[in-house]
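Re: beginner question about structure tokens

> Can someone show what the tokenized structure looks like for a real chain? I only ever see the sequence side.

Sure, here's an example I had lying around. Input first:
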Amino acid sequence: MTHRPDAARGGRQRAASPADSAARLGRRKFLQVVGGGAAASLLPWGVAGTLPAYAGNAPSGSRAAASSGAFGPEPPLMHGYSAPDIKSWSPETDAYAPYLRARVPLATRIPAFEPTQARRGLDPRPKLMSLANDYVQPGNATEGYKYGPGFEAYALRFWQYPDLYASWHGLPLEGQHDADEPQYGIINLPNPGYTEAAHRNGVLSLGCWFWPRPEDFSEVVEQRTDGSFPMVDKMIEMAGYFGFDGYFINQEAQIPAEQAELLMEFFTYFAEQAPDGFHLQWYDSLTVDGRITYENEFNEVNSPWIVDEDGNRICDSIFLNYWWNDQRVRNSRQHALDLGLDPYEVVYTGQEIGKDRFAQPYDPRHIFPDGEEPRTSWAYLGAEMVWYTVDADKSTVEGQAAVYQRERHLWAGPRQDPSRTGRMGDPDPGDPLDPQGWDGTAHNIVEKSVIGAVPFVTSFCAGTGTGFFIDGRRVSDDGWFNIGIQDILPTWQWWVRDADDEPLDTVTVDYDYSNAYDGGSSLLISGELAAQETAIVRLYKTALPVERTTALELVHDIGEGVDVEVGLIFEDAPEQWEWVSLGDSPRRLKGNWLGSSRPLASYVGRTVAAVGVAVRAGDTAVSEVAVRLGQLSVTDRRRRSKPGAPSSVEVDKVTRDGDVASVYLQWSAAKNAEYYDVFHGDGADRAWVGRTHGETFCVSALDVPDVDRSPIEVEAVTVDGHRSSPTRTWLDW
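And the corresponding structure tokens:
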């Protein structure tokens, strides 16, 4: 991906230029990583690697140094793939392949429902593509993991806005992670943890094709005598095995005209062979005769990569380069229409979030003009900048606070409220991290939801934690990251009103890592309320039909001085809240948690369109509101399933380094299991060591106990939280 030729002008602050990055790495390694040509001007390491050259805090050092004290020996490490690697690929020979699969199916999103939108009247047709890194964890310049130990990792909290997520995190080829000059692959797979989170929210997850790489391009476009392409066949097979949905194609170096012709045949064959729902997105770079030119609009130069002259589709969409203006966006829309294409399905106008941040020199209002219908869809490069632009100790909750505040600025606007989006001033190129000149993603992209059937259960687990909780009991004190087990998070972060539907800034909402009911976090509503004042927090967009046996359940910890009710908005009366009391006799659960269950039979035949909560002060002002929500669920009391226990739990291998080990486990699927929890130890020493949606898991790092043998157990859990008995195996030390 390129940046504007004049990006360094105008006083724009750049923490580290590409030349600075080259000096750090050494010129030979830098050129090997990024290749030549325009692509070298703005890339993540490994695509080229991980952190963009403009990030300023790109990690350095070996994998061992970067991850010291975190992972055990030989953890399940992701890697890149060369063309020969791909053509000979097999899961039997790919290191750690069974442990790097995404196992959450793609959820279906519910239809748009304008009356509950945060921004009324917003057109739901434009889509959003986010091309981004993943965890940005220590050592990520050469490393990628589905999950791991340690809290210092970024977990995206705003899946309700993207429609496509693509990985911008290239990785070295297998076996080269610790090399002084590692070679990176032409293909990197999307992080499987991120794919699972994307799928849970109805978002397609794409791998990344990046060229140039230091290999022979003729290997890529090798064609069989029958006209087929071996690399295409294997790329489809790999996507099916690893559980993702397509590829983003960044072909950004000149190739001979005859190879460009073959590449067109390559993608034509790809379109013919790909399964339904597969997505190929082309980047605005290569011409049909092999030259590099950035058109910055959809036109006759780049549209042949999308549709041929006979109207046959090739790639599904295009990510336009960034140097557009009002006329070019108009041209893009019109060219799509002239070809009989939907501009919202095909044309994604690109925005360099990572480089220009909140001071975008190319105004999104050219894509989304005031008073007119939107012209195209939208695309981001580098939304993970919210993490690496924060200079703090991000191994702590306090250090990450500014990260997630910046994330709310990016997605919900400068007021951190999706119902109050829009810029509060002009963009400031001298201070691109000032959000006042940024409208917010929610200003232009409608929030989406997958909550269309029961059971719906969320424990507000954000995908990372400083410990882990099950049924309100702390079962681990260790930090961890695994966005693959992130719950469906609130649709609106954060939409808070008083009883008169006016903004209420004295009450805030955030994730609380200090206590949880299940997972690593709960939802904390805090602040202050005047006497008789109410705070209404809208949480979830839904389309839940109510039957006679539908029930609402809330696990809560409510501080003194306030009462809480759950609010429902129905499709047939979208301007009106229906309030459900928690009742006078909640169940006492572990710790300070209480559970309230309320039947919804009085609403049978109606459809819940939104869910929220009201926090109400009594006759006395409350200076320290403290309401924790541990779990919210809407279930059918008739359909509660019980899981079978996992069978055939086996230790695949154990790798030990002193007192730390990596333990690879496999088991057979259990009936009705949504996910599995893994525990190590006996009695008081029994601790949670992982959660996964598949039938494989690597515990890394496991502290080796001072005993000859120790047990490891796997429990199956249903979607509504019912647990199986544990299945045990033993580790011999």
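Each token stands for a local structural state, so reading them left to right follows the chain. The chain has 13 helices and 33 strands.
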